[in-house]
UniProtKB/TrEMBL annotation:
Protein name listed in UniProt: Periplasmic chaperone PpiD
MF terms (GO), sorted A to Z: peptidyl-prolyl cis-trans isomerase activity
InterPro entries with a match to the protein in the record: PPIase_dom_sf (IPR046357), PPIase_PpiC (IPR000297), PPIase_PpiC_CS (IPR023058), PpiD_chaperone (IPR052029), Trigger_fact/SurA_dom_sf (IPR027304)
Organism this protein belongs to: Thauera phenylacetica B4P
Top-level taxon of the source organism: Bacteria
Length: 631
């Protein structure tokens, strides 16, 4: 019954990711399309990854990054060669895994898909699979059940491969125990800090130093080019705001889609499964059916025994332990013969044995939820929003072209486009390339806005798509070029910077001298802080300090180490005691560490497996795919 996948939370999370954020997962037809094209991103094992496929995956990943960052995402990242490479690498990895799955005839049966889908929490209501919720969620993502199940089947195939490779790693207990010994080692230390800031306060800075610093660091005292801009945003929301939907149309949609707003009948059932192969000999069929009829007679005589007999007799590992209970389900979830039997019984009745592809079932219907229809007023706003969205989708392409043409053909003002499409012009304060608001933060928009056409000729930028079907056009209202700030304006800042630098140098010099004296056994004017215990596996200091403390030899104590902090302070550490944990091989923490270590090995092994597949299937990348477009 495919319980290994059904109960694997990680698999469920991956499946949800396919639904909620579709990215680089495609049906088998897409993987094995033999239609050649000169416009390819890569070729894998003789199959093509088209440029359109790469562009779609790139746009979806860019949109995902924007969403995760709340719109405040680094422009350079979205347009970087590194992101393009990561997207293409992911597509290639998916392709080689698909080829391997096909070559090894990895199969996902319809029943496996049904049970996997039924186990996804997002498709459930009150703990049971809901066909209506499943279809609504797919519809919201623009997918059909067939397309989603094709993607899901491919992902399950990949999970089968991942599990097979990942389970091959073995971590010896001795290695895990040695690692745990090191992680649990404790060192007792005291700290003395030489403050760079305190030392900087005594530094005297003269005019010669100020002038020298100013001339040596011109970029630090340059104000970047800045401008004031006005812009228009055109998207589906802008169209929807201007769409009026008649009440008659809303009512007609409601009346014409009764199944959409109804809740299908659901039934709760329990069963006992006696395994029987579809190609079994007649003698075996007769034997199993006889056993099933005997169980039916026993249960009809004493229905209270159903749960106990299911635990004892049922060969369905997914439900036997729960007394055979399958929860509530609607039509379209279970296999046909079994489903027909369930929906043909009255509540509380035990039916005749029914045979399916899995064996022979003894079925009892324990509860029934009747179908119902939501009232019109309860779904009116939902229908209204959907009809507006549909109409906006129909108008979008035409109006987007009108928006693009208007801002281009009338380049001296955004007002014509705003009036024609009912948009509102937004004006910014002074902004630089690093401080633009979200709609203008796209690198392509900024490149156009700070370009010669916009700055010198005061023309509108072209309509630029910034993701999710959103177009932006902007123009410059005022511009100030980059300029170096005058010395007098930044004098105090330079004085502070020189003091800080010299304070850091002084702290390091004095600290290293004190450390050398302490290591020789000479006295040093250090006022040590309170003793504290540090554990290698639970960092309580910055990484550089932890490395220094635990790298120091503990043969002779006290031992001393020194590190300069990120703030410039020089910190001395006095190691006074070392305690090592006594851990046996049967300590449960050893098993936990071995499990974590095994995950690392599994990741390494899977990476090596992917590398071998990429060599086997001969990957060729079109270098142009990784080139960032110059604007």
């Amino acid at each position: 019954m495919f319980e290994a996948v059904r109960n694997n939370k990680r698999v469920a999370q991956v499946i949800l990711a396919i639904l909620i954020v579709p990215f680089a997962f495609f049906g088998m037809d897409a993987y094995f399309s033999e239609s050649g094209s000169a416009n390819e991103a890569a070729r894998v094992g003789g199959t093509s990854i088209g440029a359109w496929e790469f562009d779609q995956a790139l746009r979806e990943q860019q949109d995902r990054l924007r969403q995760d960052a709340g719109g405040q995402v680094d422009r350079a990242l979205l347009e970087s060669a590194e992101l393009r490479r990561a997207v293409l690498e992911n597509l290639i990895n998916q392709r080689v895994l698909a080829l391997y799955a096909a070559e090894n005839r990895l199969v996902v049966t319809p029943q496996q898909l049904q049970e996997t889908i039924a186990g996804v929490p997002s498709f459930q209501e009150n703990g049971s699979f809901s066909l209506q919720r499943y279809e609504n969620l797919l519809r919201a993502q623009g997918m059909t059940p067939a397309s989603f199940e094709a993607r899901l089947a491919q992902d399950v195939r990949v999970q089968q491969i991942v599990a097979a490779v990942g389970d091959a790693g073995i971590v010896p207990k001795a290695s895990a125990r040695r690692f745990l010994d090191a992680q649990l080692e404790e060192r007792s230390v005291r700290e003395f800090r030489l403050s760079a800031k305190a030392l900087a306060a005594d530094v005297k800075v003269d005019d010669a130093q100020i002038n020298a610093y100013y001339e040596a660091n011109p970029a630090r005292f340059e104000r970047p080019a800045r401008l004031q801009a006005e812009y228009l945003v055109f998207d589906r929301a802008a169209i929807e705001r201007g769409i009026e939907v008649a009440d008659d149309a809303v009512r007609a949609f409601y009346d014409g889609n009764p199944q959409r707003f109804g809740v299908a009948e659901e039934r709760q059932a329990r069963h006992i499964l006696l395994a029987l192969d579809q190609g079994a000999e007649q003698a075996e069929v007769d034997r199993v059916m006889a056993e099933a009829r005997a169980l039916v007679e026993a249960l009809r005589a004493d229905p209270a025994r159903f749960a106990a007999l299911a635990k004892e007799k049922s060969q369905d590992p997914g439900s036997a332990g729960n007394g055979g209970d399958l929860g509530f389900f609607a039509r379209g979830v279970m296999v046909g013969a079994f489903e027909d039997a369930v929906f043909g019984l009255q509540k509380g009745t035990i039916g005749e044995p029914v045979r399916s592809e899995f064996g022979v079932h003894i079925v009892e219907v324990t509860d029934i939820k009747a179908s119902s229809v939501k009232p019109f007023e309860a779904v009116r706003e939902e229908i209204l929003a959907e009809l507006r969205a549909q109409e906006a989708g129909r108008r979008f392409a035409e109006l987007a072209e009108q928006f693009s043409n208007t801002v281009y053909e009338q380049p001296d003002s955004l007002q014509p486009a705003a009036e024609a499409l009912g948009l509102k012009t937004v004006t910014t304060d002074w902004i630089s390339r690093d401080s633009a608001p979200a709609p203008l933060a796209d690198e392509r928009v900024l490149s156009a806005l700070f370009g010669d056409e916009a700055v010198q000729k005061s023309r509108n930028t072209e309509a630029i798509e910034i993701g999710n079907g959103t177009l932006v056009s902007a123009r410059v209202k005022a511009f100030e070029p980059a300029r170096r700030l005058p010395l007098e304006e930044v004098r105090e800042r330079i004085v502070e910077l020189v003091r800080i630098e010299q304070g850091r140098v002084k702290a390091a010099s004095d600290g290293e001298a004190m450390l050398a004296a302490l290591r020789k056994g000479e006295p040093a004017a250090a006022s040590w802080g309170e003793a504290r215990k540090l554990q290698r596996g639970a960092p309580g200091l910055p990484a550089a300090a932890m490395q220094a403390v635990f790298s120091a030899s503990a043969e002779t104590l006290p031992a001393h180490v020194g590190v300069q902090s990120a703030e410039g302070d020089y910190v001395l550490y006095r190691i006074e005691a070392v305690e090592r944990a006594q851990i046996g091989d049967e300590d449960p923490r050893v098993a936990a560490v071995a499990g974590q270590y095994n995950q690392l090995l599994a990741g390494r092994d899977f990476g090596a497996f992917l590398s071998e597949l990429r060599q086997r299937y001969e990957v060729t990348v079109n270098p142009a795919t990784l080139q960032v477009e110059q604007r």
